[in-house]
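How it folds
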Amino acid sequence: MFLGMRGRTWLLLILSRIVLNMSFRVAYPFLPAMARGLGISLEQAGFMVAARSFVGLSGIAFGIFAEKRGYKAGLLLGIAFLLVSCFLVTAFQNYWIVFVGFVVMGLATAVYNPSVQSYVSAHVPYRHRARALGLVESSWSASWFLGIPLSGLLIARWGWDSPYLLLLVLGAVLFAATFRLPDAPSGEEPTPASSEISGSHSPPPGVPPRRIWLALAVTFCILFGNENVMIVYGAWMESRFGLSVQSLGLFSTLLGLMEFSAEISVALLVDRLGKRRGLYIGIVGTAVSYLLLSFVADTLVLALASLMAMAYFFEFSVVSSFPYISQLAPAERGKWLAANYSLLVAGRVLGAMVGPALWEHFGALQPIALVSIVGSLAALCFLSRAPRPDGEPT
């Protein structure tokens, strides 16, 4: 047993997250190949990706479903959506059918991601939950390092849809294995490990939901600020320093390494620091990174270092938020983690709209970084008013 679950359960959940994350991330570097394969414009292909992201706003509805039917049901529904989406993408070479497949793919992550966070949280006591969720969230960077090179090889040999055929096969295996998982313990009663080891209890029933929404507003602001910069950093690096597409691709790999480092840091440190304190550290570090970007516009090395610091602290804050939110209302954990996912998507969508608009208007990174700093300050204000779970250090 490791942190309340068997090793094979951990392996299954992490592999499933890698597969679902790979289905989500593979489109970004290979979108031109997909557009050519479907005979459509890059703009039409981008519209598919945007629609897939937008349906993530439905996460809260599926959170209520998982709360009523059980977190395991949410895991199975998410993988089922993945199977349907990959089938539509690979079986038909029609734009609108593939478009529907991408929408269903967005539903897969909207269901599965909060459900796996809830499933793990139900098994792992709060004092160890950052380690547990940090390990699960390492699947995000792992899907990039493992999935993108493999997808490139498959596309070069068998065409743009071949990665989704692989994901269809893997998804079928994962669905069968997930079906055999035990149900998660009820969120209303801590597991024996939780009560014996942590001695923590559910937050007082008098905590109003509006205070939990303050914690979710933190997620919205964090994601808005980061996406606001990330959506234009490639254009900025090209125009300011003349970097090639190949150089940007290599630098993206370095950003992935920083993400992985942050995920492991959360797993190793945040249970001792405190989840709320980890959030403060991540938000402040990200804000400082945005500030540095405003002053390093003429130096490539410093610009790269600032972007890498931004990637690290952003991921540190996001992953720290998951165990924190998981304990705000344990009896309704699935609903609130799903709502958090919806706010995450909303922040990303708004940032993806504001960043390019500011870039088109100013043609410089400083105003964009300033808006992201304001987003970080708003996140700190919301966090200062958000509830503190039991067992959280002062």
Summary: The mean pLDDT is 88. Residues 85 and 215 are 32 Å apart (CA to CA). The chain has two domains: 7-191, 209-385. The radius of gyration is 20 Å.
